[in-house]
Amino acid sequence: MTRVSLAVCLVVLLGLVAPGCSKDWDKDAQTCMLEGRVLNSASKPIAGLKVIARLAQPVNGNDMPVKAIPRHDGVFTFDRLIPEAEYTIEPFLKDYKFSTSVSIKTGRKDTTTMLPQVMSIRWMQNKEGIIVDTYTELEWLPDQGKAFVWEDAAAHVKTLKAGGYSDWRLPIRYDLSMLFVNIAQNGKFHIDSLFQLGDCCVWSGESCDASSAKALTYIRGTYRCENLQATKRVLAVRGGKQ
Predict the structure, then answer these.
(1) Average pLDDT of 85-97?
(2) pLDDT tens sequence across 195-228
(3) Is position 212 within any domain?
(4) How crowded is residue 112: how many other Cβ atoms within 10 Å of its Cβ?
(5) Cα–Cα distance between 172 and 181 in angstroms, integer?
(6) What residue numbers bound the domain in which 191 lies?
(7) Which residue(s) pair with 81 in the sheet?
(8) How many CB atoms lie within 10 A of CB 198?
(9) pTM value?
(10) Which of 6, 46, 146, 209 is the most buried (most CB within 10 A)?
(11) Which alpha helices (H) appear in 91-237, and where do they start and end?
C-alpha cells in the first residue's frame, strides 16, 4: 500500500470515529467553576463530608456526577463543570442520608458561579436510622409508623434500643417546636422529610392534667391538650432536657 493510500485510509477512519466522539462533552474546551460553602446549623464544618454536583439532565450524553472536598472552613470548589447547565448540589457522607440540596445553573465558559448562600445542613440520618440535629445536638428517630394513645407512646419509647441506646423518651414541647420548619415538606407537614411523619400531630411527654397531654400539630405549629385516649404519632428523642 502506497503512502498516499495509507493517508486516505486514515482520513476515512478518523471520519468514521469522529461523529461518535463528538457526542462527548469536551472537558478541556468548555469548563466553568462553581464555588460554595457547606456547614452544619451550628456554622461548623462536618468532618469527612463531600459535595456532589449532579446534572439535572444529561448534556451531550454526559451525566456523570462530580465530587468536591470542602476545605477546613467548609468552602468547596468544582472547577470542571459544564457551562450554562442545571446542577443539583448535594452533601455526601458515607452511611448518612441528607434531605438538603441546592439547584443552580452554572455560568458561561471560564466563569465562576457562587452559591447565593451557605448550604446549611440541619439534620443528617445515620445507618441506624437516627436523625442527628446539628443545631440542638438532639438525636431523633423517625415516625414509628403508627399512632399511639399517650400511655402506650410513653411505654413504647422506653423499649427502643436504636443505635444501642436505651434512653429514648417522648420529647418535651420545646424539642418538638424546634423541628417545625417554615416550608411544608411534600406539601403537607412542616417538618423535615427525614422524619417520615405519617400524620399531623405528635405526642409530647408533658401532661396537661390527669386526662390529657400536650400534642403539637405540624400543620400550624401549635399545641393542644389532647385526651390521653386519643391516638397521635410518636417521635422518640434522646439527649437534652428531660
Answers:
(1) 97
(2) 999 999 999 999 999 999 999 999 999 999 999 9
(3) yes
(4) 13
(5) 17
(6) 136-238
(7) 32
(8) 14
(9) 0.83
(10) 46
(11) 150-158, 173-177
Q: Give the integer Cα–Cα distance in Å for 24 and 59.
A: 9
Question: E strands, 42-185, where?
Answer: 50-55, 66-68, 75-81, 86-92, 96-98, 102-105, 112-114, 119-121, 123-126, 131-133, 139-140
Kindly list the distances between the CA atom of residue 41 and the CA atoms of 12, 118, 128, 134, 206, in Å, as whole numbers in the listed order. Answer: 60, 10, 22, 6, 27
For 179, other C-beta atoms within 10 Å of its C-beta total: 25
Same structural domain, 158 and 224: yes
- Cα 195-221-241 angle, rounded to 5 deg: 65
Predicted confidence (pLDDT) at residue 59 exceeds the cutoff of 60: yes
Domain-embedded: residue 65: yes
All cell numbers assigned to 27: 472537558
Residues 201 and 173 sit within 8 Å (Cβ to Cβ): no
- Retrieve residue 73's grid coordinates: 472552613
Question: What gap in Å lies between CA 203 and CA 205, rounded to an integer?
Answer: 7
- What is the C-alpha end-to-end distance of the chain, expressed in Å? 89
Output the nine-digit C-alpha cell for 166: 436505651
Q: Which residue has the cell 455560568?
A: 107
Neighbours of 222 (CB within 10 A): 11
The residue among 121, 151, 166 that closes a domain is 121
